[in-house]
Amino acid sequence: MNDNQKTQITKLRAAGNGYGSIARMLGISLNTVKSFCRRNNINETATAEQSLAFTGETSRCENCGREIRQIAKRKRKRFCCDKCRNEWWNSHLDQVKRKAIYDFKCPHCGRPFQTYGDRRRKYCSHECYIAARFKGGVGNV
Fold it and tell me: Which of 33, 49, 83, 117 falls 20 to 30 Å from 23 in CA-CA distance?
């Protein structure tokens, strides 16, 4: 591998390209690209951080209050990480717009029930499923 290829690998990783696409573009082995990046500490997080254009605007995480640097030409970030996002939404269920609520009638016990997100569900509970599946028939509760 020559110096030109080394600089190209660094630039392509900074642009967000993967090992495989870089190897194909430069016509070198995938393992050569991986080894070079590992030896020179060129990983995706470091290169992605360098290639992002920050706006200089900062905001606070809505869950923990940690400072968040906003990125130019991207949607405004409200949370610093997935953990904070999940915690906030789980504690603010009243603000969730649940559109996928389905009404069914259990074929085993006949009781009406609602479920969220799974339109293929048939039974109101695991007990009804087991009873209908293995103990035979409708209404054997």
Answer: 49
